Amino acid sequence: MTKITMYSTQVCPYCVMAERLLLSKGVTITEKILVDQDPVRREEMMTRTGRRTVPQIFIGDTHVGGFDDLSALDKAGKLDPLLGQ
Number of C-alpha atoms within 13 angstroms, CB side, residue 43? Predict the structure, then answer.
């Protein structure tokens, strides 16, 4: 199973939508990192992605980006191969 990591906050509607999209594909987020509770993890996210906003999603070692990026991958038919489906 492919590891899925998502940097998130407790109140993030785009994070919820990203999680729903992944669940609709039959996969669950392996690691959810709440950056609003841990400034060190927020710094880690910004260093890894170059972005400040959540969600930031990794499928395996591939940085997908945020919800809009995830949705665009799905619409282009490129999400399933990343998920190993």
Answer: 3
Please, where are the H alpha helices in 1-85?
Answer: 13-24, 39-49, 67-75, 79-83
Q: Report residue 46: phi and psi, to 5°.
A: -65, -35
What is the share, in percent, of the chain residues with pLDDT greater than 90? 94
Q: Mean per-residue pLDDT for 28-57?
A: 96
Residues 55-82, mean pLDDT to the nearest whole number:
97
CB 54 within 8 A of CB 5: no
SS3 43: helix
Domain ranges of the chain: 4-83
The top-level CATH class assigned to 4-83 is alpha beta
CA atoms within 13 A on the CB side of 79: 23
Q: Which two tokens stand for residue 42?
A: 């927020």
Statement: residue 46 has pLDDT above 80: yes
